[in-house]
TrEMBL record:
<dbReference type="InterPro" id="IPR038132">
    <property type="entry name" value="Vps16_C_sf"/>
</dbReference>
<dbReference type="InterPro" id="IPR016534">
    <property type="entry name" value="VPS16"/>
</dbReference>
<dbReference type="GO" id="GO:0030897">
    <property type="term" value="C:HOPS complex"/>
</dbReference>
<feature type="domain" description="Vps16 C-terminal">
    <location>
        <begin position="137"/>
        <end position="318"/>
    </location>
</feature>
<dbReference type="GO" id="GO:0003779">
    <property type="term" value="F:actin binding"/>
</dbReference>
<dbReference type="GO" id="GO:0042144">
    <property type="term" value="P:vacuole fusion, non-autophagic"/>
</dbReference>
<dbReference type="GO" id="GO:0016197">
    <property type="term" value="P:endosomal transport"/>
</dbReference>
<dbReference type="Pfam" id="PF04840">
    <property type="entry name" value="Vps16_C"/>
</dbReference>
<dbReference type="GO" id="GO:0006886">
    <property type="term" value="P:intracellular protein transport"/>
</dbReference>
<dbReference type="GO" id="GO:0005765">
    <property type="term" value="C:lysosomal membrane"/>
</dbReference>
<dbReference type="GO" id="GO:0005768">
    <property type="term" value="C:endosome"/>
</dbReference>
<dbReference type="InterPro" id="IPR006925">
    <property type="entry name" value="Vps16_C"/>
</dbReference>
<protein>
    <recommendedName>
        <fullName>Vps16 C-terminal domain-containing protein</fullName>
    </recommendedName>
</protein>
Length: 336
């Protein structure tokens, strides 16, 4: 193996690997390969693509391997085997093997889920958002095991946390499907799960998911605003705005989303009214034909030029014109 690796010829390395694999017991074969990075990486790559079962067997043994016990035999062969095993464990530690095994098992589990989903769709059962209940029951224990294996390696802390959160999300998605009778949540990313729940009116469930998975208030607000606007559920969007004393995302996103998806003027006006007083707010209200409300904003920000322009665009004898004239009398002393 050493000479093949030193040659740099990957074909030769593969030839030696296959010869050793056929002629040596698996533990001895792995102890010869694990300490040589090129040979080990080529073997892992080949097995990952062609023989994942063999790779799982090797990695399972490597992940379970601990320091070799002290040899009680004085034979040179026993001592050499012990030394080779120790070198293999040092070059490819059990924690590293466990992380590699976790990646292999996660990939296999997700591929199996995709196949089950495709089979269900082909059978006319509908693909839904994920695999059926049986597939879900098989997947969740695998995800838990994968998270634990990743946790053995300090370099895979992120992966461990991500897989654990994936399992938690899958459990919540399964619960949502049971409670709502709507089979469309399983397998969705968290943001899409929130959107689906909001779009279908399951606002408490969406809020619970937000809390459980630590979604930032600002991000959740953006998701909910956009989802309700895309669904053109203007009553729900206005109700959401009414629930908030202060919007984590500000009030501008409400107005922008309402404009983009064509909110009726009455809902748009309610949302604009929540904006901080400014010339822009006054102009937007004026654009909706709400001259009196626009003039009130101009008066509050003490912008006499804007107030005068709004007043000049309204007939003097109209109800709006009379109301604006009264406002001018009331705020005359404050105008700059």
């Amino acid at each position: 193996v050493r000479k093949a690796v030193e040659s740099g010829d990957t074909d030769l390395v593969y030839l030696v690997l296959f010869s050793l694999y056929r002629s040596r017991p698996l533990p001895e074969f792995w102890s010869l390969v694990a300490g040589r990075a090129l040979a080990r990486n080529l073997l892992v790559k080949y097995c990952r693509d062609k023989e994942p079962e063999l790779l799982e067997t090797i990695l399972t043994a490597a992940a379970a391997a601990g320091p070799p016990p002290p040899s009680t035999s004085s034979s040179s062969s026993s001592s050499a085997a012990s030394t080779a095993a120790a070198a293999a464990a040092a070059a490819f530690p059990p924690a590293t093997a466990a992380a590699e095994l976790a990646s292999l098992q996660l990939r296999a589990a997700l591929q199996a889920e995709v196949r089950e989903r495709g089979a269900a769709a082909a059978a006319g059962g509908g693909g839904g958002g994920g695999a059926g209940g049986g597939g879900q029951e098989r997947l969740l224990p695998v995800l838990g095991d994968v998270a634990q294996k990743y946790a053995q390696s300090r370099d895979h802390t992120f992966q461990s946390k991500a897989v654990a959160e994936m399992a938690a999300l899958r459990r919540e998605q399964a619960r949502l499907e049971r409670e709502t009778g709507q089979r469309l949540f399983l397998g969705l990313p968290l943001a899409d799960t929130l959107r689906a729940a909001i779009r279908l009116g399951h606002h408490r469930a969406a809020a619970a998911l937000k809390k459980q998975f630590g979604v930032a208030d600002r991000r959740f607000a953006w998701i909910k605003i956009r989802t309700l606007a895309e669904a053109r559920d203007w009553a729900a969007l206005e109700a959401y705005a009414s629930e908030l004393r202060r919007s984590p995302a500000g009030w501008e996103p409400f107005v922008e989303a309402a404009r983009k998806w064509g909110a009726p003027p009455e809902y748009l006006a309610k949302l604009i009214s929540r904006l901080p007083d400014s010339p822009s707010k006054a102009e937007q209200l004026e654009g909706l034909g709400l001259a009196r409300e626009a003039a009130e904003v101009a008066a509050r920000i003490k912008d006499s030029d804007l107030f005068g322009r709004i007043q000049s665009a309204v007939a003097v004898g109209s109800p709006a014109g009379q109301a604006i004239a009264q406002l001018r009398d009331k705020f005359q002393s404050t105008f700059r």
